[in-house]
Design goal:
With 337 residues, this protein is α+β, with helices and mostly antiparallel strands. It has helices spanning 6-16, 64-73, 119-138, 155-170, 176-187, 231-240, 258-261, 266-277, 285-308, 318-334, and strands at 25-28, 37-42, 45-51, 84-87, 98-102, 197-199, 208-210, 217-220, 227-229. α3 packs across α8, α4 (155-170) runs parallel beside α9 and α6 packs across α9 (285-308). The radius of gyration is 20 Å and the shape is globular.
Length: 337
């Protein structure tokens, strides 16, 4: 949890955010595991402040500066993002780097099964999500000043290496399934096809704000893992959620009658995305799914490590998180056979 002086933060925001008045309140959003996020009120105006967590952090993690840069760059594209207002330095009144962005009043869906919506609404929500992903991957990075936002070529090779290092740095117990998956990914690396796009890195339904009365996406949030990379990484990561259990802590769509609910199947979602982008699903689709599972388990393992270190934004039950990491490793290994 951040500690700050109210008067110092008010002076800072008045100096750096246009037309900022008195700082009335700073309230932390209860949800979210990565970068602590706060609702800031000033008179009738509302803002969102998103900060790196305090304490020792893994290398390249919690990159609010990257979040600020990519959302600012996408402001005039078909990808919906909040308005970026300010990016601080590491020395700030919050003790860590933070960004300030405009507040958007809409809906966030925490359960991908969308239990509170009617069947036609569910279909529209998923179609909007599909269209936004296709729109993101269709943006020319150079046209928005992001040509240097990531390294060219060998995306999956570099990513497997990176997340292996991140996983090992956060490892709290040995998992044979995780070790097997790491080796399998290296042995089954696809040939680099040079496909490149702006990838979000954590593309899922609860990282979006929808309009209150329609399926319109007002904003795509949580860009700290974004980079230039292979578009199949985003697509497979989202499709992985069709296979995850609809459990209390980490909700997916496995075991749910998606047809009855009006939610597209994984195959239907893939086909619609490929239609929008003019591409086809690769024959080695399982590689991208296994990669997504491993990357996700490395992220969740990092959450567990921070929780054990007393440094998580929103600590959950540690045993539950550890169990979920083991489940991801087990299911990833099943996809290799």
């Amino acid at each position: 949890m951040h500690t700050y002086d109210h008067a110092d933060l008010q002076r800072y925001l008045q100096e750096h955010v246009v037309d900022f008045g008195a700082l009335d309140s700073v309230d932390k959003f209860s949800d979210g595991q990565s970068n602590p996020t706060y609702l800031i009120t000033s008179g009738t105006s509302k803002y969102v402040l998103r900060a790196k967590p305090p304490g020792k952090l893994l290398k390249s993690a919690h990159a609010v500066d990257r979040e600020f840069r990519v959302m600012q760059a996408l402001a005039d594209t078909d990808v919906p993002v909040p308005k970026m207002l300010h990016l601080s330095g590491d020395e700030s009144p919050m003790g860590t780097q933070f960004l300030v962005m405009g507040y958007l009043d809409g809906r966030i869906f925490w359960d991908p099964a969308l239990p509170d919506l009617a069947e036609p609404e569910r279909a529209a929500i998923y179609d909007a999500m599909n269209a936004t992903l296709a729109a993101l991957h269709s943006v020319d990075p150079a046209s928005v000043g992001l040509e240097d936002y990531g390294k060219p070529g060998n995306y999956f090779e570099r990513q497997v290496s990176r997340w292996t290092q991140q996983y090992k740095a956060a490892e709290t117990r040995a998992l044979h399934d995780a070790d097997y998956v790491m080796d399998w990914l290296t042995a089954n690396m696809p040939e680099d096809d040079r496909a490149s796009a702006i990838v979000h890195g954590d593309y899922r339904i609860d990282n979006m704000i929808y309009a209150k009365d329609s399926a319109q996406i007002l904003a795509l949030l949580d860009w700290e893992l974004s980079t230039l990379g292979h578009p199949l990484a985003d697509l497979a990561y989202q499709c992985m959620h069709w296979r995850l259990p609809n459990a209390a802590e980490f909700k997916g769509l496995a075991g749910i009658d998606r047809t009855a609910l009006g939610i597209p199947t994984e195959a239907e979602y893939l086909a619609k995305y490929c239609e929008r982008r003019g591409t086809t699903v690769p024959d080695n689709w399982n590689f991208y799914l296994v990669f997504s599972y491993f990357r996700f388990l490395a992220i969740v393992q990092g959450v567990l490590k921070r929780a054990l270190d007393g440094n998580a934004s929103n600590p959950k039950n540690n045993d539950t998180i550890a169990g979920f990491v083991a489940l991801l490793a087990r299911d990833a290994r099943k996809l290799t056979s």
